[in-house]
């Protein structure tokens, strides 16, 4: 079984075709919601497709577009759906230094992380140009079930993530990205997961990317760790089950 822990299925045009092709190849997809609309879309996709799981959250940029009331409503919607086991994680959430109002971003990010801790579910973290701030907050809140998605911070910060026993998900563009190759190299395999960030980050610099390409992350990890592909597949399946389902 292959697992793509981070894809934006709502952005793919032929989404049902992609999901069915993934099913044939034994690929599980964790579809990410980023706002009220996409949270509902990914929940519907996971409800109707056995190989789709959903993560629901509020993306940094989306925090700034919602009123306080809308944010409160969404926080309770997220809590409710996690409790009902309809969503398996809280994501995509985090901080982004390229957007304004970092104080507001932090305020809501903290609430989302606290909710995940209370419900004992993983957080899937976006940290563009705010890598240090994100790590500080997660450490301070003693968050344990963490997936750092597409982590682009320094090697020093990667080591801090490893020390905290968090997970790094390696995107399919690791095929050419030296940064992600380095992340895969220094992180113990027990803390690695794979993702595509579809429709972005294609391994061939094309658009759109799809979860079918998650295999590229597996191949690169196998090459980097000098392990057979089926061994990588089985270790990462264990990582995923342990983190998402306590198995
Ligand atoms: Zn994303």
Word description of this protein:
By secondary structure, the protein is of the alpha/beta class. The chain has one domain: TIM Barrel, CATH 3.20.20.140. It is built from 10 helices and 8 strands. The protein has an 8-stranded parallel beta sheet. The longest helix has 18 residues. It is globular. Zinc ion binds next to loops. The site of zinc ion has 5 residues, from loops.
Write a compact overview of the structure shown.
It is built from ten helices and eight strands. The chain has helices at residues 15-24, 36-48, 60-63, 68-83, 102-119, 131-140, 155-163, 178-186, 214-225, 229-245, and strands spanning 2-7, 27-32, 52-56, 89-94, 123-126, 146-149, 167-171, 192-195. The protein has an eight-stranded parallel sheet with strand order 1-2-3-4-5-6-7-8.
Question: What is the C-level CATH assignment?
Answer: Alpha Beta
Q: Secondary-structure element order, as H and E?
A: EHEHEHHEHEHEHEHEHH
Assembly type of the chains comes to single chain
- Percentage beta strand: 15-25%
The CATH superfamily is identified as: Metal-dependent hydrolases
* Spatial strand order of the main sheet: 1-2-3-4-5-6-7-8
Q: What small-molecule ligands were found?
A: zinc ion
If helices are DSSP runs of H or I spanning 4 or more residues, what is the number of helices? 10
What is the percent of helical residues? 40-55%
CATH topology grouping:
TIM Barrel
The number of distinct β-strands equals 8
Q: By helix and strand content, what is the structural category?
A: alpha/beta
| CATH architectural type | Alpha-Beta Barrel
Main beta-sheet strand count, sense and barrel state: 8 strands, parallel
Rounded to the nearest angstrom, the distance between the terminal CA atoms is 15 Å
Shape estimate: globular
**Average predicted confidence as pLDDT:** 97
How many structural units, i.e. domains?
1
| Backbone CA Rg | 17 Å
Query: What are the low-pLDDT stretches, counting only 5+ consecutive residues below 50?
Result: none
């Amino acid at each position: 079984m292959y697992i793509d822990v981070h894809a934006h299925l709502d952005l793919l045009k032929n989404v049902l075709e992609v999901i069915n092709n993934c099913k044939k190849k034994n690929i599980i997809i964790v579809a990410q919601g980023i706002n009220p609309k996409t949270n509902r879309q990914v929940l519907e996709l996971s409800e109707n497709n056995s190989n789709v799981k959903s993560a629901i959250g509020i993306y940094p940029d989306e925090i700034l577009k919602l009123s306080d009331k809308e944010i409160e409503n969404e926080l309770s919607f997220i809590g409710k759906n996690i409790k009902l086991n309809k969503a398996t994680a809280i994501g995509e959430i985090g901080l982004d230094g390229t957007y304004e109002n970092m104080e507001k971003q932090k305020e809501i990010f903290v609430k989302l992380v606290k909710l995940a801790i209370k419900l004992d579910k993983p957080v899937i973290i976006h940290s563009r140009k705010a890598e240090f701030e994100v790590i500080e907050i997660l450490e301070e809140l003693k968050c344990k079930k963490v997936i750092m998605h597409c982590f682009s911070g320094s090697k020093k910060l990667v080591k801090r993530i490893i020390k905290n026993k968090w997970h790094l998900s390696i995107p399919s563009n690791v095929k050419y990205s030296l940064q992600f190759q380095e992340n895969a190299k220094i992180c113990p395999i027990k803390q690695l997961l794979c993702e595509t960030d579809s429709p972005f980050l294609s391994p061939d610099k094309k658009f759109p990317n799809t979860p079918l390409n998650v295999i590229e992350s597996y191949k690169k990890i196998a090459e980097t760790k000098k392990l057979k592909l089926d061994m990588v597949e089985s270790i990462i399946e264990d990582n995923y089950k342990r983190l998402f389902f306590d198995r």
